[in-house]
# Entry
Amino acid sequence: MGKTSKFGGYATANSEQIKKTAKIVLSDLTRKYAIVSAPGGEEKITDTLKNQANRVIAGEKYDPTIISNKFDAIQSGLGIHPVDVMTELERRLHEKDQDAARFSDKIMAYGEEANARIIAQYICEQGFEAEYVDPKEMGLLVTSSYGNAQPLPESYNNIRHALESKTRAIIPGFFGYTREGHIATFSRGGSDLTGAIVAAAMDSEVYENWKDVDGIGMANPKIVKKPKKIDFITYRELRELSYMGFGVFQEEATFPVAAKGIPIHLRNLEKPDTEGTHIVRYRMPRDDEIITGVSCKKGFCIIDLYKDLMNSEIGFLAKAAGIMEGYNLSIEHVASGIDSMSIIFEKKQLKNGTIDNLMHTLERELGAQLSEPSYDNALVCVVGLGMKQKPGVAGRVFGACCRAGINIEMINQGASEINITFGVKESSAEDAVREIYDEFVK
Ligand code: ASP
# Structure
């Protein structure tokens, strides 16, 4: 039990922020597991470490001055007996590895490790108990896909045993160890995932995630100015919105906590008294609520196929899907008519020439006619538990787009009725989000 609290790069960017973080950790005795990021802010230490790693890989001389200046400034701002963090970093930089990705991870992970060691020392010097716990010590084992490691299932038991007896653990986010003992990082923003793994392992009552925003907005603030905050959202709603471009919480990080039904509480470090956003398994939509959020994602390619009597040809869809699989392309959506079908997929998957070969194969093996693929498509996703069984929602969504002169290219409503996804040209995507937000929220 106890709370697991994750503090992102903003919350650990400098000595002032670290003091606020420590105050929050210490203000509640049940905050037993604090996961911290590398110093963030304008100059992310993780990026600086990555640059240094790249220099070594390219055979150039490294220069860790920016990094040592950063940690010196943090330590003197905190007024602690300095922790030597640079000897270990220099040792790692010196020890070049044949495997560039593995070497890069070992260096990039050091921002969180050094910061966590310093924060633990600061809390101890304030007269409170706190212990730095390394992912190796707590048995956070991960796959060896460097830069995109995944936790191994045995990690959860290991972590539970390692942390059970601790009063207050300060844990670096973002990395674990492979079975062979190498450091491997999660994807960027991966401290969220470390927090989720610890929260799940410890059966925490809540997984707090401290950031620099009040919570999750109903739309991307880059598209809608000052969107209304979401108070409660389910994991599934968030998953739909995150996939479609909501960058508040690392996508993979919901899975370990959602599997256990542990609520996630997003909170603002600058306003600890405000409510933030609660991400939960179940919630009852308010009577006046229809949509929870709206987002969009660009970069989709659409291929249209035509064939007479397509609808009565058994196995047509399976064959088309098999061809896509053969080209290693994951399908996003399929929209079908009676004699036609559109396949929608992310165009970043296309390697040189793939589309030409793919088109020929589809044509030949399906006996279908194909039109010129279009490459400038976006998907807009309207999400909300409140939409379920409410008549007229789709009418209002498409009415709003129609009034703004936005052409809808494809429509897909999920069987769960908590999302309506539709395709528009990339140039209209942001307008569609604004129109729908105005229709339902303003
Ligand atoms: N420091 C890492 C990054 O910049 C991980 C994190 O902050 O979550 O991606």
